[in-house]
Amino acid sequence: MTNTWLIYALGGGWGHLNRALSLGRIAAKERKVRIITNSPYALQINNEGCTVHWIPDKAGISATCQQVREIILKTRYDRLIVDTFPRGLGGELADILPQLQPIPRILIHRDINPDYVSAKNLRSFVKDNYDAVIVPGEGEDLPLANLPNVQHTAPWLIRNAGELPDKMSVRSRILKVEPDIKTIVVCAAGKASELSLFTQLTLHLQQHFPECAVRILAANCPPNFPETLWVSHHPGIECLAAADVVVGGAGYNTVYECAAVGVPLVAFAFDRLYDRQAKRAKKAYKVITIEQAIATVKTLLDNNLSVPSYINGAVQAVITSKL
């Protein structure tokens, strides 16, 4: 018995890696946790007590799949936890999972496109190859949510409510804004190709709301962009909790982190091959254009916001689930 968990968290952006870290950091208090990721941001984070196997995001699908196979088949562990993609991002898990019968396998079922589920016959595949399915706060209306071995938790977050630093402290130390100034945070946590839109949006917001502090939260400073408006900080939830309004995409982490800390989210629903951001954006203030975003921010700035108090589903998953 190695008392080690291996978490498969491949996928672009922050999402899969952040969700894996949310679970892994809780589990790492009592065991070793190893995370496989190809996130381009993997080298810019705190590993939260986990060991991260980083596969460069530019490696190509064939090389990535081969590295995944080598890690899964040659690493010693007693739990395999797969985030979102039952067969793997490139289908590389399809022939591996049947070889792992003595090792419990758990699927983390974030919302995915039903067409993908149907095309790959994932219902049968998951029933045959996974011992448990955990839905991390995405509700009942998911393609695989009615399988018999499904367990639901609250959304998984990388910080518990009591761990969040003081709001005024974050504004002063990290965002570099005056405590009493209304603050707008643009969360550029998706694909690198979307950074241009968020850059334009940040500059427009600064122009339209000169009385506010506007910051873009991004891994890298956009080209030809004022560094005084840029913040690079992980975990991002600490910055979101210090904002009056957040503007971002409708990815898993952005939506549920803003909901948890009681800060309104103005959300763009970006097209994704597997994720349905348009569905999740219904939990926020969905917009399509920069003009709509600015108008929505204007209506939200005077709202009184609630004090953050929430349940972290990652803690539930470690303590009470079939993990």
From TrEMBL:
SUPFAM superfamilies linked: UDP-Glycosyltransferase/glycogen phosphorylase
InterPro entries linked: Glyco_trans_28_C
Listed Pfam families: Glyco_tran_28_C
One of the record's GO molecular function terms: hexosyltransferase activity
Glycosyl transferase family 28 C-terminal domain segment(s): 239-301
Residues of the signal peptide: none
Highest rank taxon of the organism: Bacteria
Protein name per the record: Glycosyl transferase family 28 C-terminal domain-containing protein
